[in-house]
Design a protein that fits this description.
alpha+beta; globular; 3 helices; 37% strand
Length: 163
């Protein structure tokens, strides 16, 4: 659930809305080809719209995030956010990968992988074609970045390759 704050021919960028707390919580990018259904909550009388207005929520597009392609998207996120979450729902629906971008090639990219205990597990190569969703800038990514070993190196804009 969230607010569309950007789109391109292939990608859709949301400012994520936590439905339990009604607080903005990071960003989600989906490939348009993976969107099969959606619901628009666009009637002013709908209770969620009243809640959004009541809390004064103002979704914003993050500065400098490119939606021209997945490789450009990853590069632009990595320059501004310490960790990125990758979902591969078609190949491994119950798994996500979190890390910082190390390198990218034509069909693949490599991240410095972080496990659910905020421990670095080494490089992991992923295929662009397997990615169905990307999350960044949320509380979970921020908490992992703040508590992982070498947390002082995980400042926004610092990639593993620059350490």
């Amino acid at each position: 659930m969230g607010f569309v704050v950007g789109f391109s021919e292939d990608l859709l960028l949301f400012h994520a809305l936590n439905p339990d707390t009604f607080r903005l919580n990071g960003y989600i990018v989906l490939r348009l080809e993976d969107v099969k259904e959606y619901r628009a909550f666009d009637k002013p009388e709908f209770w969620r719209n009243r809640a959004v207005r009541g809390f004064g929520l103002k979704p914003v597009r993050p500065v400098g995030i490119s939606l021209s392609s997945l490789p450009d998207l990853l590069e632009s996120i990595a320059k501004r956010f310490p960790l990125i979450t990758f979902h591969t729902e078609r190949t491994k629906p119950d798994v996500c990968y979190i890390g910082s971008l190390l390198a990218k090639a034509e069909a693949t990219f490599t991240i410095e992988d972080l496990d659910c205990n905020a421990e670095w597990t080494g490089p992991r190569r992923l295929k662009f074609r397997d990615i169905t969703r990307i999350d960044f800038g949320g509380g979970y990514e921020e908490a992992l970045a703040a508590t992982a070993p070498r947390a002082r190196d995980m400042l926004p804009g610092r990639r593993a390759a620059e350490r």
